[in-house]
Amino acid sequence: MTSWLATSAPPDAEAIAERVFTALADPSRRAILAALASGGPATATDLAGRLPITRQAITKHLALLAGAGLVTAEPGERRRVRYRVRSAPMQVAQQFLAALARDWDGPLDALKDHLDRHARGSP
Amino acid sequence: MGFPDRIERTVEIAHPPAKVWAALTTAEGLSAWFGQEAAIDLRPGGSAWMKWDSGHTADMRVERVEEPTVLGFTWRIFGLPEDDPRRTYVEFTLEPAGAGTRLTVIESGFAQLPEDVYRTAYDGNADGWRKELDELAGYLGAA
Fold this sequence. Notes:
By secondary structure, chain A is mainly alpha-helical. Chain A has 7 helices and 3 strands, in the order αααβααββαα.
C-alpha cells in the first residue's frame, strides 16, 4: 500500500505530488486530515463521531490517504486502529507547487517596461 | 514533465548591460520594477529585501556579484511557512546582444527533499501542519 515509504530508494517526487493532490481534492478527506492534525491520532469510529461522514466512507478515505502516505495506521486490532497524519509527502507536493507558482514572466516584463520608461525620461 | 528543480527564462532587452545591471542591483532600480520598496547591500553575503503593498516581503542574501554580468542571491521558497529554512538560488546573467542585453534568470533548488531533521521538526507540530494544509488547500481551490 505504501511501498515507496518502505524502500530506501529516493521516491519519485512528482508521483508523490500527484497522489497528494488527488488525496486532497476531496473535501471529506481534507476534513479528515484537519481533524487528525488538530485532534491527534484517532480511529475511524472517533472520526465518524466528529465529522458528518459515515464510518464506512471514512474507512475508504483513510485507505486512500494512507496510499498517498498522508496518514499512517498505528498497530492495533481492527476497529481500534488509530491513524495519524504524516506531513512529509505534503512538503514534497508543496515544493512542486512552489516551482510552478514562481512567476518570472511578470517581473521580467516589468523590468523591460521600467527600462523603457527610464530611457524615455532621461535621454 | 519531471520534478521541476529549476525555472529558466531568457529575455532580450533593448538597453545595454550597464542599465540592466543598475535596475537589478540598486534599491532604486529594484523598487521601480520588482518590489515596491527595496534595499540591497551589494556584496557576497550582503542582505537585501523587497516589500510589496500587499504586506509580502522577500528577504534575500546576495551570493554572487560580478558587475555587470552575474548577480546571484538566495531567497525563501515561495509558499512555504516563514520558518522554513530551505531557499532557492536565483542567478541573473547579462550578456551584451547588439545594442541591448540578453538577460537570463535561472532559479534552482526547488527539489530539495525534506531531510530527516526537518521531518522531525514537523511531525507532531499540529500548527505547522494546519498552516501547510490551509496553504495547499488554498492553492488547490484557486487552481
